[in-house]
Amino acid sequence: MHDIVPRSDPSETLERLLDERVLLLDGAMGTMIQEYGLGEADFRAKRFADHSRDLAGDNDLLNLTQPDVIREIHRAFLDVGADIIETNTFNATSISQADYGLQDLAYEINREGASLARGVVDEVAATTPGKPRFVAGVLGPTNRTASISPEVNDPGFRNISFDELVAAYTEAVRGLIDGGADIVLIETIFDTLNAKAAIYAVRKYLDARGLQRPVMISGTITDASGRTLSGQTAEAFWNSVAHARPISVGFNCALGAEALRPYVQELARVAGISVSVHPNAGLPNEFGGYDDTPGYMAGRLAEFAESGIVNIVGGCCGTTPRHIGAIAEAVADLPPRVRPDVEPRCRLSGLEPLTVGPLTGFVNIGERTNVAGSAKFAKLIREGDYAAGIEIARQQVENGAQLIDVNMDEAMLDSEVAVETFLRLVAAEPYISRVPVMIDSSTRTSRERESSIRSASRRGNRRSSSRLRKSCATARPLS
Predict the structure, then answer these.
(1) Which of 285, 307, 331 is the last residue of a domain?
(2) Which has more pLDDT, 450 or 182?
């Protein structure tokens, strides 16, 4: 492993390169690992020979047990022109590693994953001094979702909390940075609340260490509906993560290049930063393989570049060095997207975006979900009748509310518990959660703020009522 030494912030170099050409991400680590045909003994190696659980399929563990395989894969992608190499850490959080009983090794797996990539990148970069290469430390989505209940009959239940996600992501990013990552890539985001936990963990950790690292954010559009699994449109997703000030935003996985195009184009319209895409090699076929050939995929992504909608391209599931090499050749002489100057506005999001500007007119705020403003709602919440409270929220949206105001400050209530319970139920109702939520409280302790963030952040960039009214001067309550 490389010594843990502070690395310089590569943001300036990356921004310069992004102005000059389309940058290339690598391809699918999992696809390449499958080509090696590794078995249970290979995943275990000597160190884990007596481990109590099956380990085959824990690709991240190969950072410890088969490091030469991981190095070979990284080098294969670098040899065909990749500028950015992703670490083999997609499932390396303690949350995901718990499935294998290896949660205590999360830091080590992330550190070694970054160190392996760092070593190969430095070796290759030394032979091409005019072409810098970068290590992107990957934070995957985990196998839990913070804004969707796994229990059909209990929509308010969660099997993971925001704080638990933050703790896991903090441990992972510590390993990635210690191992030498230049960039932090939060990718395959199907639940924006998980991503916001990752963003919070990364920013807090870097601030605590006095470090700067560029952050890339990449969501996942799950099907032809054009939404993430948690229900957001492309623009709403961007509004929800823009506060992180990433160096790029984009989409990856789930779909092939052709199916992803309209959603990448939408991001290119609304985001004033670089846009990335690393799609699958099409949809899985009946045998679990992927049918988009290197030539076909390269042609599709070349068209993205010709249309001026991308700055970074690469591949996800099913893509090999052959795909990345073909893409590199196809975009080599094409200019990158020109990042637009996006006019500052009050930009909020539920499952759908809300932008307040000169043509918006009055912004209608549904305030009947406020215990201080509605005696009926307050009585329902005191009695624990959250279902009836949710119906009031639904009526507000049906009557034209463009966002809803939620306040649980009442002497007879445990405000933190009440607001978190209510907002989790709101999140389970797409008709209501399509609009932004405004958390309104006169007793804003630090813990209450955190509770509001945990419960509501999936629906976008929230502000207190006073700040919202300052920035959206035409806002008015909807009675």
Answers:
(1) 331
(2) 182
4, 178 Cβ separation under 8 angstroms: yes
Phi first, then psi: what are they for 353, rounded to 5°?
Answer: -80, 155
Give yes or no: residues 375 and 441 share one domain: yes
Question: Does residue 2 belong to any structural domain of this protein?
Answer: no
Between vectors from CA 96 to CA 168 and to CA 449, what angle results, nearest 5°? 35
CATH number reported for the structural domain that contains residue 313 in this entry: 3.20.20.330
Q: Give every CB contact of residue 359 below 8 A, 6+ residues apart in sequence.
A: none
Instruction: Let me know whether 159 and 287 are in one domain.
Output: yes
Structure tokens at 87: 């670490």
- Alpha-helical segments (H) within 187-285: 192-209, 234-241, 257-270
Rounded CA gap, 25 and 251, in Å? Answer: 13
| Confidence check: pLDDT of 271 > 90 | yes
Its domain, for residue 40, covers: 11-331
pLDDT score at 224: 87
| 340: in domain | no
Asked if residue 19 is part of any domain, the answer here is yes
d(CA 5, CA 8): 10
Of the candidates 203, 174, 90, the one whose C-alpha atom is nearest the C-alpha of residue 138 is 90
For residues 385 and 471, membership in a common domain is answered with yes
pTM listed for this prediction? 0.91
Phi-psi region of 342 (alpha: psi -120 to 50; beta: other; left: phi over 0): beta
Instruction: Indicate the number of domains in the chain.
Output: 2
Residues 310 and 336 sit within 8 Å (Cβ to Cβ): yes
471 within 8 A of 346, measured Cβ to Cβ: yes
- Same domain for 271 and 369, yes or no, is no
Please give the order of strands across the beta sheet that includes 475-478: 437-439, 403-406, 363-366, 475-478
Residues 278-290: tens digit of each pLDDT? 999 998 888 888 9
Q: What is the three-class DSSP state of 279?
A: strand
Spatial distance between the Cα atoms of 146 and 138, rounded to a whole number of angstroms? 19
Whether residues 388 and 310 fall in one domain: no
Task: Give the pLDDT confidence of 377-436 residue by residue, as tens digits.
Answer: 999 999 999 999 999 999 999 999 999 999 999 888 898 899 999 999 999 999 999 999
Cβ neighbours, 10 Å, residue 44: 18
